Each structure stands twice: as structure tokens, then as C-alpha cells.
Amino acid sequence: MNAFDILMERGFIAQSTHEDELRALMGKEKITFYIGYDPTADSLTAGHYLTLMALAHLQKAGHRPITLMGTGTGMIGDPSDRNDMRRVMTVEEVQKNIAAFKKQFSHFIDYTDNKAIMDENDWLLSLEYVKFLREYGVHFNVNRMLAAECYKSRLGDGLTLFEFNYMIMQAYDFLHLYRKYGCTVQMGGNDQWSNIIAGADLIRKTEGKSAYGFTLNLLTVGEGEKMGKSTGNAVWLDPNKTTPYAFYQHWRNTADSQVIKNLKLLTFLDLDEINQMAAWQGSELNKAKEILAFEVTKTVHGEAAAHEAQNAARALFSGGGDLASMPTTDIASDAIAEGLNIISLLDTMGLLPSRSEGRRLIQQGGVKVNGAKIESIDHMITAADFEDGSVMVQKGKKIFHRGILV
User: Fold this and answer.
1) Could you tell me the maximum CA-CA distance found in the chain, to the nearest angstrom?
2) What is the pLDDT of residues 217-270, one digit of tens each?
3) What is the rounded distance in angstroms from the CA atom of residue 192 to the CA atom of residue 167?
């Protein structure tokens, strides 16, 4: 099956340039395509995972992916989909984050025998500014750039010249990869549309050749809220930042309206099997959520971790499985000798983005200890709460965490 149609049928593609030409190209020859990743954190997120699944599907169809890490663009930061300027990172931070990305990419993409390429856009760091402007700046119309959504949304709040360069730099990346590897297609999140078009246009203007691009639908929470670190609801691929259990639980708690969509985007299950699940209701739909959670956790963290997470979830919600598999935090006995405030306990367990959020949760009845609702923000946890050496804390309806007395 044509690789473009595979992505379309599974719901990846949001928009594309020259759709008929692109489909024909992917059907008749092996192409090289790329996605860029700016190292703004020390781990990839679930949003990145979606893009890696798109790369994996294309690689399985015989095409060659490039995962490009933003050594150069990461020094600026993409202004797309932001209300303020990104924090400027040091060279050391960028390199540390890139090293983390490299390890995670290899879990999803096969780089052996030139089946895929991993590269960094450090070529941007050695460009001579005036020479670059003379050769490439002449191809960019400022009026058109300002009309692009990635810039237009920032004009009211202030767009710096620093950030304004980002589109030109990303466009040059596409041109450089075209010249170096014969890369003819760029992919990216739906917020990258203007940048992708700019790169394809630059190749056409400088090389007289056709280049293409398409964007991928972004992962959302519930009915349309974007998922990602900039929105405060990131799900990390690093098990030290989001444990396999918490990762599993996130997908197990997928909204009913998102289950089939996420099964198509985030798993390798056959579409016929997924389409059968679309008719499921009630307990069967919960089974589909469990399949989604297991498959995604298996792909990211391995089958053993997926089974452990599933067992822990079943222990809590259906009375079976192994509680030892769920997330735990050691609590020093001297820390509770005179009592430990409930908010401090939640903070120690890593369950709070802020202490004010802890106060709000408790006031709204969203915290339980050993099944009992906590009524006061001044509630103290003592040794008596540690039944058989452990305490069970519940945040909201679906997040559970054990404290182990040591």
C-alpha cells in the first residue's frame, strides 16, 4: 500500500503540499524525508512519539527517515504556538538534551545499514550572517512571513528579531538536507506548516527542484486541548520523568472519544482490528483502552514494563495483579515522627506541580489517604497511617501512589 495512504488512513496527515504529486512520488520510488526536533528538554514527549510512529510507518514501507536534532535551531527556539519567547539555553544544555534524544530515537527507528539517518543542524552555527542574508535572505518576503500563523499570533505580544530568524533557519535546514542526502520531504507538527512551506519554496527557488511537505495532527487531551510540555500536561518517554505505570495509566484513562484515534496513531495494530473496536461500548470500550495503554507502553518501555504496569493498574481497579508494580516513594520514619503535612507528602511523592495546586485539590475533595478523603490542608500524616509499612495516596479519581516507610 502507498505509504502516503497508510498515514492518511491512520489519521496522521493534517495537510500537505501537492498531495497527488506526493502520493505518486511515494508510490514509485524510495524517498528520504525528515522531521526536526529542537532539544528544549532532556526527554522526548508523547507528542514526539506520534511523529516517531509516522517515521516508523514510512520506514516499514521502504522509505528513509532523517531525525534532525536542532543543535542550531535549538539555540533560538521555535516561536510557533507560543505567547512568549523561549528561555535561551546554553550550549551545554542543548548538547545534554540532544544526547538524551539520541538514546530515545534508537528505540523506534532502525538506523542500521543506512536505513535511517540521525544528524544535527550544527551547520547553522558556522554560517556567515551577511553572506547568508545575501544568498538566501533575498528569497524571503517579510510581508508573507508576518502573515504566517507562527508569527502573526505573536505580533501583538512582541516578536523579536532573534525569533524572526527561525523560519529562515529551518528552511535552510531543508535545503541543506536536500543537497546532502537528497531529502525531498519534510514532516512536522501541524504548527510547523509555515516553516515547511518556506523550506520547500527555498529549494524550488535555489535548486529549481520540487520538494514537498506535510504536517501531522497533534495529540490532544479530551476534546481538543493540545498535549505537550508547553501546556503543562506533558507525558515523557523517559521513565525517570514519567514512570511506566504513570505512562500506562495516562493512556488507560484516554477519553472515550479519543480511543480509536489513538489506537490508529500510536500502535502498530492492524486497522481492521482497530475498526472492529470502534463499535465497542461500555466494558468493551474499557478493554480497548487497556489494549491502547499496553501497546503504547510496550513500544516505549518494553513488554516487561507494560505487563508490570498493567498488573499494578488491575490491582487497583479490578482487585487482581501486583501492588508492588505501582509507583512508590520511600518515606523516612523520622520525617513523620512528629507528623508530616499532607501537602508535603504529596509534594514528596511528586504528585503536585505546586503547593497551591495541592491546597486546591484538598479543598475540592480530590485527595484520599488509605481510601479516606482528606478534609483539611492542615491534615498530618503519622506512623499510624502506614498500614503494614505503607500508605496509599489517591489524587483525583485515577492517580494512585504508595508511600513506603523506611
Assistant:
1) 76
2) 988 765 555 555 544 468 999 998 888 988 998 999 898 999 999 999 999 999
3) 9
pTM of the predicted structure, to 2 decimals: 0.81
Q: Which domain holds residue 296?
A: 244-325
Q: Are the C-beta atoms of residues 270 and 284 closer than 8 Å to each other?
A: no
Burial of 229 (0-12, 13-18, 19+ CB in 10 A): middle
Pairing, β 185-189 against β 32-37 = parallel
SS3 at position 30 = coil
CB 215 within 8 A of CB 188: yes
Q: Give whole-number Cα distances, 348 to 80, 289, 402, in Å.
A: 35, 30, 11
Do both 303 and 338 map to the same domain? Answer: no
Q: Which residues have a Cβ under 8 Å from the Cβ of 306 and sit 6 or more positions away?
A: 244, 248, 294, 295, 297, 298
Output the domain CATH number for residue 398: 3.10.290.10
Beta strands in 195-343 (DSSP E): 212-216, 220-221, 225-226, 328-331, 340-341
> What confidence tier does 196 reach under pLDDT thresholds 50, 70, 90?
very high
Determine the Cα–Cα distance for residues 145 and 124; give it in Å rounded to an integer: 20
65: left (phi over 0), alpha (psi -120 to 50) or beta: beta
Residue 36 one-letter amino acid:
G
Residue 225 lies in a domain: no
pLDDT of residue 231: 43
**Residue 93 host element (H or E):** helix 91-105
Specify the number of domains making up the chain.
3
3-state secondary structure of 231: helix
Q: Residues 365-380: pLDDT tens digits?
A: 899 988 888 999 999 9
What pLDDT shows up at residue 230?
47
